[in-house]
């Protein structure tokens, strides 16, 4: 191989992994199976649609993966296991711009919560607008969208218990 070709391939590989690192989401902390989810992995998971009002009170249809599906895949203590000391675990979601938001596990668990909090990748059938994606948490039924964290990079489960 010529030097130029090797340089080209190396650059292509580095670029591809940089893009994947940007769009992928890691699930870590108090999980039995840490995950590095690519956009393709997320695309294969259960997809749901919710309707929620944005900051201006305008309703939109958002679709994506229920956060509990992702946590279940990572082996987080949900469902029948969400009891005792596990009741003091929380999920911290981090974004590329340093913004971080917190959820308790019961508000994400389908056996507790009647609303479904999702990791959205579409609004009204279209990919999320530039700067608000590629993945954004959407919390239906909340009066302000401050927890609708965009550019999601990681989800970390931890114990708050002292
Ligand atoms: N990554 C990230 N997500 C974020 C924020 C932020 O600063 N960074 N701001 C939040 C706040 S405080 C609000 S009110 C909404 C605003 O969303 P909008 O710009 O789509 O109306 O996004 C939330 N998601
Ligand atoms: Mo806000």
TrEMBL record:
SUPFAM superfamilies: Oxidoreductase molybdopterin-binding domain (SSF56524). Residues 25-142 form the Oxidoreductase molybdopterin-binding domain. Residues 1-21 form the signal peptide. It holds the Pfam family Oxidored_molyb. Keywords: Signal. It comes from the Bacteria. Transmembrane segments: none annotated. This is Molybdopterin-dependent oxidoreductase. It comes from Chitinophaga hostae. The lineage of its organism: Bacteria, Pseudomonadati, Bacteroidota, Chitinophagia, Chitinophagales.
């Amino acid at each position: 191989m010529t030097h130029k070709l090797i340089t080209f391939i190396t650059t292509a590989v580095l670029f591809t992994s940089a893009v994947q690192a940007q769009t992928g989401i890691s699930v870590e902390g108090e999980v039995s199976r840490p995950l590095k989810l690519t956009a393709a992995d997320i695309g294969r998971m259960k997809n749901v649609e919710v309707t929620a009002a944005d900051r201006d009170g305008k309703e939109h249809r958002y679709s994506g993966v229920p956060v509990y599906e992702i946590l279940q895949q990572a082996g987080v203590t949900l469902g029948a296991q969400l009891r005792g000391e596990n009741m003091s675990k929380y999920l911290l979601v981090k974004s590329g711009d340093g913004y971080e938001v917190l959820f308790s596990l019961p508000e994400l668990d389908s056996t507790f919560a009647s609303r479904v909090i999702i990791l959205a990748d579409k609004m009204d059938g279209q990919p999320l607008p530039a700067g608000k994606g590629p993945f954004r948490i959407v919390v239906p039924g909340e009066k302000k969208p401050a927890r609708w964290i965009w550019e999601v990079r990681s989800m970390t489960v931890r114990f708050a218990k002292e």
